[in-house]
Amino acid sequence: MLPRYILKRLLGAIPTLLILVTIAFFLIRIAPGGPFDDDRNLPPDILANLEAKYNLDQPLGVQYLNYLGSVLRGDLGPSFQYSDFTVNELIAEGFPVSLRLGGSALLMALLFGVIIGTIAAWRQNSRLDYLLMGSAMTGIAIPNFVLAPILILFFAVYFGWLPAGGWGGGALRNMVLPVIALALPYMAYVARLTRGSMVETLRSDFVRTARAKGLPEWKILGKHSLKVALLPVVSYLGPAAAAIITGSVVIEQIFGLPGMGRYFVQGALNRDYTLVMGVVIVIGVLIVVFNLIVDIIYALIDPRIRYE
Amino acid sequence: MTVYSSAKRCVLTIGALVLVTLLLSACNSESDLDAVEPVQRWNLPEVVYTEDGRPDPSILASEQVLHRGNGTQPDGLDPHVTEGVPSSTIQRDLFEGLVVRGADGHIIPGGAESWEVSEDGLTWTFSLRADARWSNGDPITAEDWLYSFRRVVDPATGSRFSILLNPVLNAEDIIAGRRPAEELGVSVVDELTLEMRLEAPNPLLAEVLTHNVAYPVHRPTVEAYGDRWPRPGAMVSNGPYKLEELAMQSHIRLVRNSHFWDNDNVIIDEVYYYPTEDLTAELLRYRAGEIDWTYEVPNTQYNWIQANLADELVVFDWFGTYYFGFNTSREPLDDPRVTKALSLAIDRDIITQKLTRFGQQPTFSFTPPGIPGYQSPEPEWASWTQDEREARARELMREAGYGPDNPMRLEIRYNTHEDHRRISLAIAAMWEQTLGVRASMINQEFRVFLATRRARAVTQVFRAGWIGNYLDPMYFLELFHSTNPQNDIAHFNEDYDALLARAARTADREERFALLQEAEALLLESQPFAPLYTYVVARLVKPYVRGWEPNVVDQHATRWMYILRHDPVTREDS
Predict the structure, then answer these.
(1) A242 φ/ψ sector (left φ>0, alpha ψ -120 to 50, else beta)
(2) Residue B402 main-chain phi, psi, to 5 deg
(3) A103 domain residue, yes or no
(4) pTM, full prediction
(5) Considering only alpha carbons, which residue of chain B is nearest residue A195?
(6) Using the 8-state DSSP alphabet, how is residue B370 labeled?
(7) How far apart are the C-alpha atoms of B547 and A104, rounded to whole Å?
(8) B83 to chain A, minimum CA–CA distance in Å?
(9) Cα–Cα nearest to B72, from B47, B53, B56, B90
(10) Shortest Cα distance from B230 to chain A (angstroms)?
(11) In a domain, A221, yes or no
């Protein structure tokens, strides 16, 4: 059943991605200004040379078909902004960094978020609950660009324990601060979700039955309730994972990390058409894949769901 | 799902929020941080020089590694193709042109030992250095230079700055695809002599040749690797350093090129360049000791820097002018009385002292100071007091028919940036106060802004800036030539164009400058734009990084620098 289901879902994603690519392709071309505009105007001859070099001199429809063709061959084209690199190379270098960073942050957010949320629900309306949920609200409310410099100021400048920035080839000490800064808002959100659905679950009949049966509290919480309570968290994970892994522009810029998040924003600002398209495709594929994974996990933890 | 009814819970949550917010704002306020601020100070040796004027080895740090903040990720490393400042800074360490700039910014021999200009100013003959070597040990010959110059003007290369070589015979036609690159006016006389013929005499050709489009590239490497040649392992270059490591968005590492002809005089062994887009983060990395030389400093941290790092803050004039342009092809700005009144009513001191703050100098001219032998002309009212200027501005506005019963409405357009917004706001207020002008503000994303400005269809007043690539007033003045596609202020003046054309044919430097001064004075007379201030460079440099000097082009090759011995000052010392 499962392989067929996966295949069906993946095939179903093809039209979605095609529509995504089409809309993105034409949307970015509608934006005024082009990749070669700058403070200094290019003389028309040079502009023509450049446009010929990047095939921008052809009609938009032809460019679109050419682009689709090369994407199908796995070639995302040359970058307009970074003239020595192709988009494939940029993404191949940036994606592993984003994956490592985002993956670590996601794990951290999930682990601590679920624990905090469970504790808060277990001690619902106690001081502990208010304290945890108050902090979670704050975690959601404080933007990354405020949190990150504060972390750097204390842990890098004052105490000198960790580096203020840089990737260091992915060394652990370089990852600590950005992962925390990236994870905190997600962790807070996961905690709130977990608490909410846990509170509800703890009131349900099967928990009452379990309690009446005299099951130990940790078993009720950790085994029976959590499995059900995690459903909303799991469905949140799909989009969250795609978002966190394709990187955070803010975190990457502040910590000087070579991820792919900033290519999205910078590519758009620079009208680096191919780079933006490349990142859009990667994000699109990730969302499709993560939604699929989420649906599979869903069925694993909730026996009421079947693959159709 | 959850029951959010308990009032007590609500109060507690809000209380927690308020507390955390207070804590955070306390952290942000500058005064509180000062109390705990550990700003690192250094014990430095007295600087002593050897007999030949070089720093004495006894004062040098044992590890000569420099870490430079470098703005954005460079757009590439091929000197003929890239256009950004971050890339040109790195290329300056990797390559050497026929001429280079010394630490003070003046032109000195580079790949050419010496050069001669013919009597008519049309032929430049360069004697190349016999001991010049590529980083792989190959000798550099006149053929290499010929190949490189032809490559720049070849349309297939897609060079964005090839127009800088327009003074060279036939360059313009080749760039436009009307002639083959072989017809470029550059020829090999013998292995170590290169000849360059010009379209017209140009006493400032050497200035152009300092630019990265005039760097040589290694033909076998370019031909073997194509677009991928500017990478570690492939790139062969001729400068003091060679490319060792390139990690996109992380860092670029250069190491000393042992084949460089002047390698004995190079002191720093390794240079790291970091992209530093976030200025606050760059400042933090500087404070954490991870970078020695910042690209910029954040305006918002001005007070903190003045209070704590004033002695590491370096500020000097940069070769650029910040101005507000008037689209004179549209009403009401087609009336010179109006544009003049608008310009007079701007109090430039307020802008530089209250807004930009890092020592920018108010200006009334277009060409910035710093060109040897050129004195920028100023309109007479540059010497007036601001009150006198404003009185004259009101007079001019009345003459043009505007007053309290007929107020002028204007749009100020700027690209999204905090500084531009604040300056536009201040100017709108000044115009309103002095002239009763109702100015509204529109901000646009950078590329949209550029496209709008260029179309000259909807713009009225717009912010602009122009920064020179080399020290020639022509670089500024030709912007407002009738035929310049970037003449966004729609300045069409035949006399002005004629003066520029005459200057372009003049071989004598002084005579040329006199003509250009006349042209600039004419431009300023009608005031189709309001020059506001001369740009400055503001950066933090660790006190142990020496050997560099402030210069108006803000070009600082690592080969001139060295690192002093430095021990941190501990609590006991102070």
Answers:
(1) alpha
(2) -110, 140
(3) yes
(4) 0.87
(5) B2
(6) -
(7) 44
(8) 10
(9) B90
(10) 7
(11) yes
Contacts of A135 in chain B (CB under 8 A): 16, 20
Give the contacts of A156 (CB within 8 A, at least 6 positions apart): A162, A163, A164, A165, A177, B284, B288
B80: chain A residues, CB-CB within 8 Å: none
What's the helix, strand, coil split of chain A in %, to 5? 75, 0, 25
Q: Extract the tokens encoding A269.
A: 């600002």
Count how many residues are written for chain B.
Answer: 574
Kindly compute the dihedral angle of the four CA atoms of residues A288, A289, A292, A298, in this order, to the nearest 10 degrees.
Answer: -120
Look up residue A231 and give its amino acid: L
Of the candidates B249, B451, B466, which has its C-beta nearest A37's C-beta? B451
Q: Is B87 helix (H, G, I), strand (E, B) or coil?
A: helix
Residues 6+ apart with CB under 8 A from B473: B367, B371, B374, B376, B513, B516, B517, B520
What number of other Cβ atoms are within 10 A of residue A161's Cβ?
A: 11
Chains A, B: CB contacts within 8 A come to: 185
What DSSP element (H or E) covers A281? helix A273-301
| Phi-psi domain of B401 (left: phi exceeds 0; alpha: psi -120 through 50; beta: other) | left
Query: CB count, 10 Å around CB of B445?
Result: 14
Please report the DSSP string for B463-494 in residue order. EEEEE-SSS-HHHHHGGGSTT-TT-TT----H
The complex's ipTM works out to 0.85
* DSSP 8-state symbol, B570: P
Question: What is the distance between the alpha carbons of residues A90 and A95, in angstroms, rounded to a whole number?
Answer: 8
Does residue A64 sit within a domain?
Answer: no
What CATH number is given to the structural domain containing A153?
1.10.3720.10
d(CA A58, CA A54): 10
Question: Across the interface, which of B75, B281, B467 has its CB nearest the CB of A254?
Answer: B281
**Which residue reads 């002809």 in tokens?**
B261
A16 vs chain B: nearest CA distance in angstroms? 30
**What confidence tens digit (pLDDT) does each residue in B87-140 have?**
999 999 999 999 999 999 999 999 999 999 999 999 999 999 999 999 999 999
Number of structural domains (chain A) is: 1
> Is A65 a member of any domain?
no
What amino acid occupies position A84?
D
- How, if at all, do strands B438-444 and B313-326 pair? unpaired
To the nearest whole Å, the CA of B160 is away from the closest chain A CA by 7
Instruction: Point out the residue among B76, B278, B485 whose CB comes nearest to the CB of A83.
Output: B76
Residue matched to tokens 């020592």: B359
Domain span holding position A123: 97-276
Q: pLDDT digits over B32-87, tens only?
A: 444 445 678 889 999 999 988 889 999 999 999 999 999 888 889 999 998 888 99
